Amino acid sequence: MEVVCHSMALTQAARRVEVLYDQALAPTGLRAAQYQLLATIAAIGPIELSALARVMVLDRRPLAAQLRPLVDDGLVVYADAERRTRVVSVTTRGKRLARRGERLWQSAQAHFESAIGPARANALRARLHDVIHADLGTV
User: Fold this and answer.
1) Is the alpha carbon torsion for 110, 112, 114, 118 positive or negative?
2) What structural domains and CATH numbers belong to the chain?
């Protein structure tokens, strides 16, 4: 049965892809969403939570919940900042794990591209960026 609901189709596709990346990243002990967060902070450097939330397209509360296990595992820390802002940065241990995960992530990328074809993978990513940046407003 073909799904006609855009939300459901996106959710189902995201689940399939996330399983692939979760499996690839399993040796790191991180799930795909955790690795994406760790790798993003490692690439950007110390960043305010509100800015990180915008980059990750998340509200602050879910972002804080996703950060908690990374903080608990000593992979990221909250840096000293003004009371009104919180800054998060990656620890040395977190940087090592992000580098280790990069090879595994690249393997998942290659597997995904092999499964649907590089041109289709690139076109899909471009369309998804269109969705991310579209002014969907509110209903």
Assistant:
1) negative
2) 12-133 (1.10.10.10)
Segment 8-64, tens digit of pLDDT? 999 999 999 999 999 999 999 999 999 999 999 999 999 999 999 999 999 988 999
Helix (H), strand (E), coil (C) string for the chain: CCCCCHHHHHHHHHHHHHHHHHHHHHHHCCCHHHHHHHHHHHHHCCEEHHHHHHHHCCCHHHHHHHHHHHHHCCCEEEECCCCCCCEEEECHHHHHHHHHHHHHHHHHHHHHHHHHCHHHHHHHHHHHHHHHHCCCCCC
Residue 48: how many CB atoms within 10 A of its CB?
A: 16
Per the DSSP assignment, residues forming a β-bridge with 79 are 87
List 18's β-bridge partners, or say none: none
Q: Report pTM.
A: 0.86
Asked if 101 and 35 touch (Cβ cutoff 8 Å), the reply is yes
